[in-house]
């Protein structure tokens, strides 16, 4: 057994009773540098860097292959991206055919047709279209429409005073983009785009409202959608997108007021304004694949201003990202063959089993839940499907044709291929073997419509999972990740689905009221927290409540699962730490990370996850064994009065 705790990262001058996050990670936080091409650093980023390098090694080791094989597609796409000489020589030329088509837009119907074309080719459409399990009938795929059309991170950036400077910088970026594309009236077009996007943003739902899944489940016939938005020529839109109308006879409108509000703009806003907006979407959607002046302009705004990055990512990293975005499962198949050990799956199966057992014990003894709701919760728990490592079958890319000498054509073809994949599944049975992350992705997820928890191969490494570590550390790290994802099945959003993935109210009214009261206490705990180094913005407790419930349940249940697996809190110390202390130190080091202030501001405004320091510290304030492990008492900074502590699951 190896010691899985990185003692060199700790700051002994900080007491764990006051700040567990900095006690465990303080020296690292004070000395670690964020790479100039990144906005953050830490355990997650270390694993992502390693996976990125592994994928590069795979790509570069591929022998010359036939173009109709996955290996041939990977090689062709990567080489087309790395052909800098050709890309530089082309400059803005690849945009000209798109600009010519936009110049021909002479009516709202022609505009709708172009919006459809943009949807097909991945150029930031006004209305997004995707397929997913139908919440009313989770055995089949349904078509969904969703709000889109903005160039800033979300609607708040167009209306709040705190983002006024960003708006000015965005306007300058728009002007620069139009100048690079060869337009002499760049200022006028930039102003028109910002004004139109501001009007579009006024109809966007905010991020808290987007957590209301019942409000976003609006089954609608295409005929009724047309009637509700008569200014939007849906027939022309579908024609431009090459989507047969009969496929969308029925669809689910996620934000009805958005479509009803934005549709009149197609007729009331001047066509010149819409043409400018369409040009900007083409530039924006393709700028990462154009000559260096476009790439640099995009970097300067989206990565430097918004995220604080100091340098452009090396070209090979951007090429790897493109390959993974287009051919992620083809890459994943090769990645798993080289980097995933079967014994990890066996160990994870055991961990998942113990976490689910601990949830079962916890739900059975909840004092705030009635027997009727408890039976439903246990039924949902029994139906959880764990997926570990990689999918049992791989996606078929045989219909995708790519070349080595035309990057823009490859990008447009890949986006069109993806839309065909989407519309080809609408109305058909759900593929229960499908994954929505790649094996080489360092992350995990819960899918409420499938009631499944998914853990890709790449996250099953230290600091999250270490086959040679003591159980206390593993249960606190990967165990809490497992518990977190299970917890999403019972958070403010996940609890609106049943065990079959159906949007259904399975709660007794008194239980729902008790749950919401506990969740509101957690909202209050987080609301207004300000991370270190940020001069504006704070945590939005309502936006982050789902992830905070996941963190709370994840750690609490991971501790119980560790006990079920034979963990002894008062067992033999290792390096001066009792097993219980090692558990909480393992939790804290899993959150080792830092983020640039610019990127932190975007996170606070848009991300449902709290900053790492609060994901670590605020959660343990609610966990009773933490108080016992470190002798936390009143007067310590992490002390929380017993009646303020929250225990949900």
Automatic annotation (TrEMBL):
Its cofactor is Zn(2+). Coiled coil: none annotated. Keywords: Hydrolase, Metal-binding, Metalloprotease, Protease, Zinc. GO terms for cellular component: plasma membrane. Residues 16-391 form the Peptidase M13 N-terminal domain. GO terms for molecular function: metal ion binding; metalloendopeptidase activity. It holds the Pfam family Peptidase_M13. Residues 443-646 form the Peptidase M13 C-terminal domain. GO terms for biological process: protein processing. PANTHER family: FI17812P1-RELATED, ZINC METALLOPROTEASE FAMILY M13 NEPRILYSIN-RELATED. Belongs to the peptidase M13 family. This is Peptidase M13.
């Amino acid at each position: 057994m190896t010691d899985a705790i990185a003692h060199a990262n700790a700051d002994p001058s900080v007491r764990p009773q006051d700040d567990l996050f900095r006690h465990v990670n303080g020296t690292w936080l004070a000395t670690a540098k964020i790479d100039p091409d990144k906005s953050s650093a830490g355990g997650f980023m270390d694993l992502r860097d390693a996976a990125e390098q592994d994928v590069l090694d795979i790509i570069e080791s591929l022998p010359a292959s036939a173009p109709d094989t996955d290996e041939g597609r990977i090689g062709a796409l990567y080489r087309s991206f790395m052909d800098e000489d050709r890309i530089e020589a082309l400059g803005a030329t690849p945009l000209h055919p798109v600009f010519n088509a936009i110049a021909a837009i002479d009516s709202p119907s022609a505009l709708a047709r172009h919006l459809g074309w943009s949807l097909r080719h991945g150029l930031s459409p006004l209305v997004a279209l995707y397929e997913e399990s139908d919440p009313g009938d989770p055995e089949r795929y349904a078509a969904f429409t969703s709000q889109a059309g903005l160039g800033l991170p979300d609607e708040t950036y167009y209306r709040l005073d705190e983002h006024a400077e960003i708006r000015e910088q965005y306007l300058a970026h728009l002007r620069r983009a139009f100048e690079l594309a060869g337009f002499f009236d760049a200022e006028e077009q930039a102003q028109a785009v910002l004004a139109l996007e501001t009007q579009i943003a006024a109809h966007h739902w905010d991020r808290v409202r987007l957590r209301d899944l019942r409000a976003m489940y609006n089954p609608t016939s295409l005929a009724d959608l047309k009637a509700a938005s008569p200014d939007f020529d849906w027939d022309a839109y579908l024609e431009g997108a090459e989507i047969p109308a009969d496929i969308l006879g029925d669809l689910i409108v996620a934000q009805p007021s958005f479509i009803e509000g934005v549709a009149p703009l197609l007729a009331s806003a001047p066509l010149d304004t819409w043409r400018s907006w369409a040009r900007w979407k083409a530039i924006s959607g393709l700028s990462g694949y154009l000559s260096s002046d476009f790439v640099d302009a995009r970097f300067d705004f989206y990565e430097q201003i918004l995220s604080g990055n100091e340098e452009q990512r090396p070209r090979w990293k951007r090429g790897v990202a493109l390959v993974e975005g287009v051919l992620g499962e083809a890459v994943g198949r090769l990645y798993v063959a080289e980097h995933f050990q079967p014994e990890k799956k066996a160990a994870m199966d055991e961990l998942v089993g113990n976490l689910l057992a601990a949830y079962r014990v916890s739900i059975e003894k909840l004092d705030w839940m009635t027997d009727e709701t408890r039976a439903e919760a246990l039924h949902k728990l029994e139906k959880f499907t764990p997926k570990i490592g990689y999918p049992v079958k791989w996606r078929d890319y045989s219909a995708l044709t790519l070349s080595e000498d035309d990057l823009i054509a490859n990008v447009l073809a890949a986006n069109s291929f993806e839309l065909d994949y989407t519309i080809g599944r609408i109305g058909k049975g759900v593929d229960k073997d499908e994954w929505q992350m790649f094996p080489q992705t360092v992350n995990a997820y819960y899918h409420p419509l499938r009631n499944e928890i998914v853990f890709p191969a790449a996250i099953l490494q230290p600091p999250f999972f270490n086959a040679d570590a003591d159980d206390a550390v593993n249960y606190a790290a990967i165990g809490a990740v497992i518990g977190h994802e299970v917890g999403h099945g019972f958070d403010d959003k996940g609890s609106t689905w049943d065990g079959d993935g159906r949007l259904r109210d399975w709660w007794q009214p008194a239980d729902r009221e008790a749950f919401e009261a506990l969740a509101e206490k957690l909202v209050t705990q987080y609301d207004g927290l300000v991370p270190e180094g940020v001069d504006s913005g704070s945590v939005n407790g309502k936006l982050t409540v789902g992830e905070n419930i996941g963190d709370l349940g994840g750690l609490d249940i991971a501790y119980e699962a560790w006990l079920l697996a034979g963990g002894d809190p008062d067992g033999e110390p290792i390096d001066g730490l009792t097993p219980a202390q090692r558990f909480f130190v393992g939790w804290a080091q899993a959150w080792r990370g830092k983020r640039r202030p610019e990127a932190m501001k975007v996170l606070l405004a848009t991300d449902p996850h709290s900053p790492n320091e609060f994901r670590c510290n605020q959660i343990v304030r609610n966990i009773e064994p933490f108080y016992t492990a470190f002798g936390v008492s009143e007067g310590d900074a992490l002390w929380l009065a017993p009646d303020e502590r929250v225990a949900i699951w």
